[in-house]
């Protein structure tokens, strides 16, 4: 448990997302600059209905570093309606700050809510849970934490069809974070009313795979 009056561990920068109208050019430039291939690319299945906020039509994620539960990612989002000029729209889409654990994210949300600083959106992204805030200039700040206790479970989620067909995830009630039991993610689906990661089937399979490998090693 985290004491409600103790200092929380500092967050670390997790993700920088750049919005652009020149997706192919930007992806190629970052591939060369970072000297790595995208860890994931996604093309939206359909345009959002009329009247809905614009959504990325294509996106790619360059994973620079991973040290569970943290990772450093640069992402490119192709956003409709951005003019194809260097100074009329393209730029920072949002920034992400990763928390050390779900317990820290839950406590940080509780403290911010007490200060009447509320997220405008909360998402289960599969590998992680995120809360999205707007600063006074309306820049988007995402704070997040992993949904899984181990890298094996997280990678199983990333490889699942449920995640690859919908890397955006699903909207959740941020107050549901306060219903989650314990201080760390658990193996298998969550209980006691907390939301389950939508790729939790992969999570359960990964947990079983880890236990099976440990069982086999015990007889070697």
List keywords for this structure.
single chain, 220 residues
Provide an overview of this structure.
The chain is α+β, with helices and mostly antiparallel strands and 220 residues long. It has one domain: 2,3-Dihydroxybiphenyl 1,2-Dioxygenase, domain 1. Helices cover 26% and strands 27% of the residues. α3 crosses α5.
Summarize the structure.
The chain is an alpha+beta fold. Helix content is 26%, strand content 27%. A nine-stranded mixed β-sheet has the order 2-3-4-1-5-8-7-6-9.
What's the layout of helices and strands?
Elements: E1 12-20, H1 23-34, E2 40-43, E3 58-67, E4 70-78, E5 91-98, H2 102-114, E6 121-124, E7 128-134, E8 140-146, H3 151-159, H4 161-165, E9 170-171, H5 200-217
Parallel strand pairs: 1-4, 5-8
Antiparallel strand pairs: 1-5, 2-3, 3-4, 6-7, 6-9, 7-8
Helix pairs in contact: 3-5
